Amino acid sequence: MKKILFATSEAHPLIKTGGLADVASSLPRALLKRGHDVKILLPAYASVVAKANEAGVKKVAELSLSGQTINLLQTRLPGSRVTVILVDIPQFSEREGNPYCGPDGSDWSDNHWRFFVFAKAAEAIALNQANLDWQPDIVHCNDWQTGLIPALLAQHEQKPASVFTIHNLAYRGLFSYQIFAELGLPNDYWHHEKLEFYGQMSFIKGGLAFANAITTVSQSYANEIQTPEFGCGLDGVLRARRDDLSGVLNGINMDEWNPGADKLIAHNYNRRTVNQKIKNKTALQEQLGLPVNEAIPMLGFIGRLVDQKGIDLILNQMNQLLTHDCQIVILGSGFASYEQALKNLAQQHPKKVSVTLGYNEAFAHQIEAGADIFLMPSVFEPCGLNQMYSLRYGTLPVVNAVGGLRDTVFEKPFDDIGSDGNGFVFHEATAEDLHAAIKRALAAYQQPEVWKQLQQNAMSQDFSWEKSAERYEEIYSAITA
Ligand code: ADP
Ligand code: GLC
User: Fold this and answer.
1) Other CB atoms closer than 10 Å to residue 326's CB: what's the count?
2) Which of 127, 177, 218, 323 shows a CA-CA span of 20 to 30 A to 299?
3) What digits encode the pLDDT tens for the residues 387-414?
4) Which of 383, 386, 406 to mutate to test ligand 2, by most ligand atoms within 8 A of the CB atom?
5) What is the pTM of this model?
């Protein structure tokens, strides 16, 4: 049994902007189930405190660090027995909205301070100096928001071991030298092997330089980030640490994403009753005002509307795609230019394209259940959860062969699908290649036997957290041995 402090800036269902939240909720649960003593450390954002109040929240400590008073609140992850400690400073708890940026989409100007103080709180807990009477064996950090934690811990002799998981290397947590100086970090940390990154400070480098073990969320992404193409300027650091870097594929929450029991969808179905899935499509067509017709293939997309997700590839082949008999259902939010382009498209083609801007969990489930084909043409994808949800729902994914997409989706010739063909894969991130893959998907859809076999393969895959949690256990053991 290990005591694990799991530091994260998001955890579903308390706060979520992307897949990190799903992982930060599922992995601690899986570790708890395997007998570990896990506590999640999370910022006390206003919306989190509101939700936590429903489950019950109590103040467990008050710290004074770097001239700031920090309250530690304790609650539970709703629907689980996992303890959550909330780092309560006004910069978190007195601000509505997105955890990282304001209503105009630009980063909160004090993000460096918010996540520095968060790291200071983690450091105090890790050293058992937070009046919690609990000292972890492992501090597991996630993404740039927690990058300073291993860097702060490195200053101490007696300290827990640290793991840093990269969910997305593209967000490096970059700030000026002036901010580095303001935070009072040790002078020698201003070094290219530590926090300095081409004249700026990078929070994520704290994790990459100082954590005992580095992980990322798929084996392919672990390989890719060691190359200049995917390394975001950090590939050198990662190559230097290749012996401490491993890829552990994420699992999914198999209870929440289960077409057989999903309460958010119109009709439940499973592998054996997959022919019932079509009722979810007609329900969605009705709900969205699209022509109701079982035979028209429906393509779905859900995600953050950012460059990573390949929205421009989707947009750039749209004219060709619209020559086919199909419907396209999109849910997402993000860059204003993508939102506008998608809205225009839906206005021009109301019978074929439906676009919903915003964040809507129930609707995400309905698209997974209702669509036939799921588009995920990401230009890079550390793991990706939506393709796994899609596979589980028998909604066959079309993906670019990168990161976790390459590791979970496999295309086989129609006459040799075997037991692992489960989707459609293209190998160059271009609109042409995406469109060619969509055409293969539409062709397969016209061959019911082929389609059924692909669905059976997809729906038989095991994406439970067990295997991944075991891998993390091995890593924890290796660094505490
Ligand atoms: P990323 O973390 O890069 O955004 P993932 O595929 O790992 O990508 O995870 C995205 C998660 O966020 C999924 O659970 C997906 O369903 C959810 N999601 C993204 N955008 C939306 C949205 N607009 N509405 C509802 N859920 C969304
Ligand atoms: C990131 C990545 C995504 C991954 C998620 C959870 O947001 O973009 O690919 O699935 O983290 O690890």
Assistant:
1) 19
2) 218
3) 999 999 999 999 999 999 999 999 999 9
4) 383
5) 0.96
